[in-house]
Amino acid sequence: MIELARHIEILLLENDCVIIPDFGGFIAHYQPARYIKEENLYLPPVRTIGFNPQLTINDGLLVQSYMQAHHTDFPDATRMIEEEVAGLKEQLYQNGCTEMHGIGVLHYNIHSTYEFHPNEDGALSPTLYGLSSFSINRLEYLTSTTSAATRELLPRQEKRKRTVRFKRQWIGNAVAVAIAVVLFFFLSVPVENTYVDKGNYASLGTDGLFDAIRSQSLATTLVTVPSRPQQPKKTNIKNNQNTLKPVTVKVEKVGKAQEAVPKNTVAAKLNSTEQPVAKPVTVSKPALEKKETATPSSSKKNKYYIIVSSLPTANDAQQVLNEYKQKGYKEVTIIEGNGRYRLSLCNFADKAAAYKKLNELKQNDAFKNAWILSSK
């Protein structure tokens, strides 16, 4: 019986319920910390043990503990527990009570029922180990007796606080005004005079000069495709006119000229009737490499291809193509597009004929996933 109580005590350390087959179950309850006001005593949290005689079904927990302790099998451990329970009942019938070491005392009353009284210290628990009760006296309220010196200091302290508070208010107002001024300058909308009257300015031929510099500058040189050459743009030099048309001011970065432009050259350019604004630069367009392992002979006529496989690399596609040709499909080709290599088993110019052939191929399990690719 001592061994049985020892097994139950160990199992209750990690479990909340331990059942003795055909006898009853011990249940652990958590009781939080308490305060006894009359005694000014604080009690720590504990785990109390209760007994329920209606829990008699074998859950295997106690049997497994016996199996690990005695290195035996399940039937042998069950037999050992039955012997312990028989001895426990015999002792209760004869003595009326028995002590379960570390758990409590079990009684058998005149009503043929079991009564259990747990230990006052509670069950052993690793999480609550070392917590003990203690008493502490309550502090009494101090009498509000202030001396004359204290009464004199109170008005001075209040006056000092008011002075500091008044200064802080002024500082806060000054900071707010400074922030408002800074935001006014940063967030104000700039006013610009974008109206330019060309009639009020003397014309010294600067239009032709800037056109000549712009045509030689890398920053303003136009790069055009040779397929669409641009015609040289004619620049008309306008004389001074008193017109009130707004001119859009456009700022362009002009590269630094390597050599000074002579005046004779500028005059010659001004006298010319046509001046090229931008020199077209021919840029060789790299040819797009499009690798196609095989193209159908009737690609211009046939627009519907029956695709049976789609592979990521050309080597895999060529290998599968050879396999299909060995099986007798001579029209199989590879169609490359969007980074994929698709195998076309056959192609048709008529859409109805293509779908008819597709339905025939899908009757074979090897071509169930075949689909039609239409080229536009």
From TrEMBL:
Signal sequence residues: none
Keyword annotations? Membrane, Transmembrane, Transmembrane helix
Q: Can you name this protein?
A: Sporulation related domain protein
**Segments crossing the lipid bilayer:** 170-189
Q: Which GO terms describe its molecular function?
A: peptidoglycan binding
Kindly list the organism's lineage.
Bacteria, Pseudomonadati, Bacteroidota, Bacteroidia, Bacteroidales
Q: For the SPOR domain, which residue ranges apply?
A: 298-374
Organism of provenance:
Phocaeicola vulgatus str. 3975 RP4
